[in-house]
Specification:
heterodimer; A: Sufe protein. Chain: A; B: alpha/beta; Aspartate Aminotransferase, domain 1; 17 strands; 16% strand
Chain lengths: 133, 419
């Protein structure tokens, strides 16, 4: 377990970077993990050159989910929307550097899903429209 | 009875002897002895149930009801025998009132799709509670929305007990139906189902009781409760998944149209007309999960041999030992009743600074199985002001030592997270 809950993951969990809301966000996307009821909202402020001027995330989550969002949001500042859209799940899992069980993969990847949803300007994920009704 | 110091109250069960009947309980997980505390989700199975099911497959498997040969007749006799055992367990007035289905969820949906759709219309009122599992909440919410009825949701007090004043106020709205859990799967609260049923009947409502968490853990008597429907799942009471029961009063079931159409549920089919089979088969379309039902019959035999009252008393002893230990842990919050009154062996809690997923994962590394999440109880979680809890739930085979292991693992988690 010491291996799993590494110091840097616990640090990000206890003091997440970019945590909060962005009043002047140009893009935002809200999602939940239906397994546990955890929630995340991703806020992006995209500048004129299509680059991320600022980013925030809010919500509730476990250590894996919060650390993943904290690390991911640190990385995206200054990146273009196209660069955001190109981030893949393997990259997020490499950031965490631990082997996740299938149940925990959803925790680790929720922030990526929210980031991509906001980058694509979505309000709901394609194929999941029914869940908001 | 107030909870004070942890006491290992004498249990009426010879737990070590019972545990020997459950092969899975001697397994190890991550090199640690298995501590299975997720019984509200599903129970483990004794050898007697596994053997009863294996015997069907190994010795006389054949489809039930229509075969005019030895194997089919033997299997049919065991299947219908299981129905009688279930009827005895819940003290049903008639065996034909016991309908086999997949689980409590399917049983509740059966009631919603048949009685509900025939009797609930625009302007009608359905009363339910914030304690309900989604299985006894979403069907009524959806029915209400589809037909323009009103769903009234009775709240709990801060101890997780149902607000009787709100329930009484809801009865003044003359509901057609009351959908009530007998025991909360999220908090362990036992509702005063008998008194509430009487109140609902006085208001002219029918009463559907979700017995998924009560029938496995205590003696439940439908004549005493005087309810109109009771649904429960076999897999939470030592039987396999796929063996569920919905019980209803014969007079009501007779008037209801079928739920699913097809084979076995008919009396006669012509090109332009079909008449329905008698109870209970009118509601058992297609080949039933007969081996699972036979497993449920064996589980009922097992539970009755142990004694439902003794099981309840044992779980009460476990909660009486666990609650004060948990309440003494700094930063730990127990949701729901903090005394032994009107509760079963389900304890939901939060450890400050550690998300339930992380608690459960650390427990897993210690061989301890608990549930972390919303427990199909999202309206309740919203009421409690949390997204998720960690839930430990006990059964007849759990021990005081396993509760010590649980409390020890909380300490491990707190050390790891430095909280």
């Amino acid at each position: 377990m010491d291996d799993f809950y590494r110091e840097f993951i616990l640090d990000h969990y206890k003091n997440p970077h970019n945590f909060g809301e962005l009043a002047d966000a140009t893009h935002r996307y809200h999602d939940t993990n239906p397994l546990c009821g955890d929630e995340i909202t991703m806020f992006l402020k995209i500048g004129a050159d299509d680059r991320v001027d600022d980013v925030r995330f809010s919500g509730t989550g476990c250590a894996i989910s919060v650390a993943s969002a904290s690390i991911l949001t640190d990385e995206v500042k200054g990146k273009t929307l196209d660069e955001l859209k190109a981030i893949d799940r393997d990259h997020v899992l490499e950031n965490l550097g631990i082997t996740l069980t299938p149940a925990r993969l959803k925790c680790a990847l929720l922030s990526l899903k929210a980031l991509k949803g906001s980058a694509w300007g979505l309000h709901e994920w394609p194929g999941e429209e029914a869940k908001s009704s | 009875m107030a909870v004070t110091a942890p006491q290992k109250t004498a249990t009426p069960l010879d737990v070590e002897r019972l545990r020997a009947d459950f092969p899975i309980l001697s397994r190890t997980v991550h090199g640690k002895a298995l501590v299975y505390l997720d019984n509200a989700a599903t129970s483990q199975k004794p050898r007697q149930v596994i053997d009863a099911m294996s015997a069907v497959y190994l010795e006389h498997n054949a489809n039930i009801h229509r075969g005019v040969y030895e194997f089919s007749e033997r299997t049919t006799a065991l299947f219908e025998g299981a129905r009688e055992k279930v009827a005895t367990l819940i003290n049903a007035p008639q065996t034909r009132e016991v309908i086999f289905c997949r689980n409590a969820t399917e049983g509740l949906n059966l009631i919603m799709h048949t009685w509900g759709r025939e009797h609930i219309g625009a302007g009608d009122v359905i009363v339910t509670t914030v304690l309900e599992h989604h299985s006894n909440f979403v069907p009524w919410q959806q029915l209400a929305q589809q037909v323009g009825a009103t769903l009234v949701v009775v709240d709990i007090d801060d101890d997780g007990r149902l607000r009787r004043d709100q329930f009484t106020a809801a009865m003044a709205k003359r509901p057609k139906l009351v959908a009530l859990t007998h025991t909360s799967n999220g908090l362990g609260t036992i509702t005063p189902a008998k008194a509430l049923t009487a109140e609902a009947h006085a208001a002219g409502a029918l009463v559907v009781i979700d017995g998924a968490q009560s029938v496995p853990h205590a003696a439940v008597d439908v004549r005493d409760l005087d309810c109109d429907f009771l649904a429960f799942s076999g897999h939470k009471m030592l039987a396999p998944p796929g063996s569920g029961v919905v019980w209803g009063r014969a007079a009501i079931l007779e008037q209801m149209r079928p739920f699913l159409y097809g084979g076995d549920m008919i009396s006669r089919v012509a090109v332009d007309l079909t008449t329905w089979n008698e109870l209970p088969w009118k509601f058992e379309a297609g080949t039933s999960a007969y081996v699972d039902a036979i497993g449920l019959g064996a589980a009922v035999d097992y539970l009755q041999a142990v004694g439902m009252d003794k099981i309840h008393e044992h779980e009460r002893a476990l909660v009486g030992y666990a609650l004060p230990k948990l309440l003494a842990v700094p930063g730990l919050t127990v949701f729901g009743p903090k005394t032994l009154e009107d509760r079963v062996g389900v304890i939901s809690f939060d450890v400050a600074g550690i998300h339930p997923h992380d608690v459960a994962q650390i427990f897993d590394s210690e061989g301890i199985c608990v549930r972390a999440g919303h427990h199909c109880n999202q309206p309740l979680m919203t009421r409690l002001g949390t997204a998720a809890t960690t839930r430990a739930s006990f059964y007849l085979y759990n021990t005081f030592a396993e509760i010590d292991a649980l409390v020890g693992a909380i300490d491990t988690a707190k050390k790891l997270f430095k909280v």
